[in-house]
Structure formats: structure tokens, C-alpha cells
């Protein structure tokens, strides 16, 4: 177990370092120099340009800048926004809470509804299963931006129950965004759960246990669910990770002041230091989610503890 | 006629409906300028938010532009973009996957690791970063998504090709002196065509979804051009309580993605979970052995 943990941690750090190189490198190899963002349409004198380049450390070679940036990041200094002049860490920090809460809220919805619907479909074949399957099939095809639009149209504009944009007071402002974020993942998890549980229900040891008269609930809990968990956990890991990417869409749709909206704004303003920090943060969230799901797998399934990889 | 029957019947009723819908959308997109009742860019402020009427079947948007015509013309960018994404991803992905499956060993290891690495990055994030570099537009979005979709297609193709690689007929062909290229392309690839086409259809749906999201964010197709994603982003109409101009393109996105997913799973031979009940269709043995989408999630 300890070896697996180390292995995973190593892979995590490597992936993060690699993606930080790619993100840092690509943003500064982009057409158009970063300092042009500051000058806008004006054409600066050579001296002014040189001064700005010096202040942004653009006159130093790329590896040096990368090293400075990396050490800065490790010390909690993410640089300064080129547009507002605020420290990037402040801008990111103010959005982090909203995004984390949103993803947490949506994840809860996904786990409860997705698992519940999937289980329901698996253990009640027939019309109920058909209905569950149809609903989940449609909901995997609804992208968050369409879900957000329909939800705003119905619950914010028509009925006026919940705010259409902004945080609102308390959790009000997060309800519709969380539902919009969770819908697609709910359907996906329901499908995965239904298939995994259905497959286990047909296995011989389950049939034997049922035939010998063990209570159905006990069989379901300790023989079916336990064995069906690995694909379900993998799916949850992937889905939660994917939700971090989808916050880009949902936060923009609902004008929520989170990381996703900050990313889209900074991309539009070409505010490179912010884009770098946020992109790295999103990749980190993604990688950590996947690593966590692997670790949980190993906790559930002892066979995976000795081998380094699941494949 | 016989050929038609051999692939039409196994699709099942849902698969057939999905195929009809997708074909209809593609045809409408192609013929859009001929079928569209109005010029999609023509504004008339007097018709602002004019409801459905014989002249404007789906009404008008805030600038008095005909919604139906914009939907028809919008189908072009909305479907062309993802089609390009899938084509590019296939062009790069299939040769890589076949090479990996054929050679095995360290070549396979390296290619598989690279696929895993790219697969770990969300396509949407990659596309947003690319747009940050090259500015908004359909081209950078399509390029970024093509890269993101290579592993989605290639991982499945590699798994299917590896199964074929170890089957006796491949050894038999190799012993007879057939070249690597001939065996992989004419025999292995041919045998896994259902898997490739099915996965490509599913990828088409997801790419459509991603590109529409990007256009919605204003990062891919730009505003005056009619596009489904762009049309949904009309917050003005939404706040005015005018749901038709924003919800109609959204519904088209959902239906088309749904149809592509159903069609893809049907073709790839993965029994769609939501359709398993009733007639379990027997398929011809050699394609039935192909591992469908399941390997992608579990690996």
C-alpha cells in the first residue's frame, strides 16, 4: 500500500511538473509579445518597451523565467496580474471557495442521484428500469450550457425562485449551477452503476447466495455492491475531475465569481500570469481526482495493492 | 439490397431512428442555403421577438432574424467543426494505434503512455488554453479538440487491434509472406471497422458538445455567424423570457448528441444499456468479439 502511494505521488508530481512546463512554455511562445497587452493600441518607444520587458523579466531567457516562476509558485507567489496589477494568488484565492463549493455540491448530487438511479434500474428490471435508462441516456446528452439555459429560463426568469446570476445569499446562487453541472454526470454514473450492478447480479456466487436463502439486502450489500464498486469509483473520479473543466462553462453562464469565470475572463484579456496559474490549478485538480480514485480502488480491492498499475 | 439489409437490421429500432436523425441533420446542413426560408443575417427590428407565425415558423430573435433559418445555417458550423475534429483525430490516431498494436514492446508502451497522458487532460481546458494563445476562432478550437480526441479514438482502436494481432489468421498471413502494411490495413483494420466507426460516431457527438460549449463561451464560432452554441448564448432573449430562440438550438444539440451516441454504441456492438431489454440481437461472430467501449473506462 505504501509503495502504491509513493508510486501514485511520484506520477502526480511528474504530471504536474510536465504540464507546468507545457503551460509556461506555450504561453510565452505564443504569437505577439505579452507586453503588448499592456500597451494596447499605442506604439511605445523602444526605451519604454525595454523597461516594461525588464519589469516583467521578459528580457531573461525562458528557462530562467520558468525557474523563477516555479520557485515563486512553490513559495505561494503566483505572480502579478498584468491587467489589474493585483497578486494572482489573491484573484485565484477569492474564486477558489466558490468553485470548490460548487463542485462539492454537484458531486454530492451526482453520487446520490447517479448511484441511486443506477441501483434502482439494476434491481428493478422492467418498466422502472426502462424509465431510468431512458432518463439517463437523455441526460448524458445534455451539455452544461444547455442545462444552464433551460434552468435559468424556467426557475429564474419564469418562476423567479432562484437567482439567474451571481452568488445570491447563502447557497441560493449555487443550486441551479450545481444542477446544471451535475446533470450530465448523473446520467453517466447511473449508466455505469446499472451495468456494473447488473453484471454482478448475474454472477454465480450471487445466484448461489440467493438460492441458499440469504437475505436479498445482505447479498446486495456485501456481494454485489462491493464487487461492483471499482468501475463506479473510477467513473466518479473521472466525472468529478471533468466537472472542474465544466465549471468554465457553468460559472460563465451563471456569472459566478469562481475559477472558471476567472479563466475565461483572463483568456479574453490575455492576462497570461492568471491563465497560467488557473490552468495549472485545474490540471492539478484533475490529476488529484484521478489519483484519489485509484487509491480508493486499492482500498476496495486488495488485488490492486501489490501491482503498481490497474491495467 | 442485401448489403443494405445486413447492416440496417442489426441497428435496431433506436439505432435506425438515430441514423435517420443524423442523416437528416447532415442533409439539412448541406442544403441549408436552399431550404432556409429567410436570410439568417437579415435583421428587422420591427419583428423583434415576433412569435411563431406562417412567415417565421419558429419566430424571430431580438434583432428580428428568422430563428428557423439561423438553426438551419447554424447546423453547418455546428456539424462541420466536430466532423473535422473526428477526421483529424482518426488520421493521426489510427496509424499510431495500429503501429502500437502491431509492434508491441516498448513502442506500444511509449504510445500507450502518451495516449494516457493526453487522455488525462480535459479537452475543454486544452481548447481554452489554445484560444488564449491564438485568439478565438473555429480553427484553434478544432485543432485543440483534435489533439484531445486522438486518445479517445486511438485507445479503443489499439485495444481492438491487439485482439486481432494475436489471432491465428494474422500469423497465417505473416507466414505466407504478406507485408506488415497489407496485413494491418487490409485485414486487421477491416475487421475492426465497426469498432472504429462506432467510436468515431460517439466522438462526433462529444466533439459537437465541446465545440458548441466553446462557441457558447464566445471562444470558437463568433457572434454574428449562426451557430447552435452561439445562439444559446443569447442571454438577452433568455432574460426577456423569450425561450424559443435559445432553447431550440439547445434541443437540436441534445437530440443530435443523443442520436450519435445511440448510433455509435449500436455500431460498435456494445449493447446499449438502456435498450438491452427484449430482442438481444445476435451479431456475426467476428465483430462480436471486438471489445467495445468498456475497456476505455476500466483501463
Automatic annotation (TrEMBL), chain A:
InterPro entries in the record = BPD_transp_1_N, MetI-like, MetI-like_sf
- Keyword Transmembrane helix on this protein? yes
Keyword check for Membrane: yes
Q: Which UniProt keywords apply?
A: Cell membrane, Membrane, Transmembrane, Transmembrane helix, Transport
The name this protein goes by in its record: ABC transporter permease
Q: Look up and give the membrane topology term.
A: Multi-pass membrane protein
Q: Which family does it belong to?
A: Belongs to the binding-protein-dependent transport system permease family.
Which Gene Ontology BP annotations are present?
A: transmembrane transport
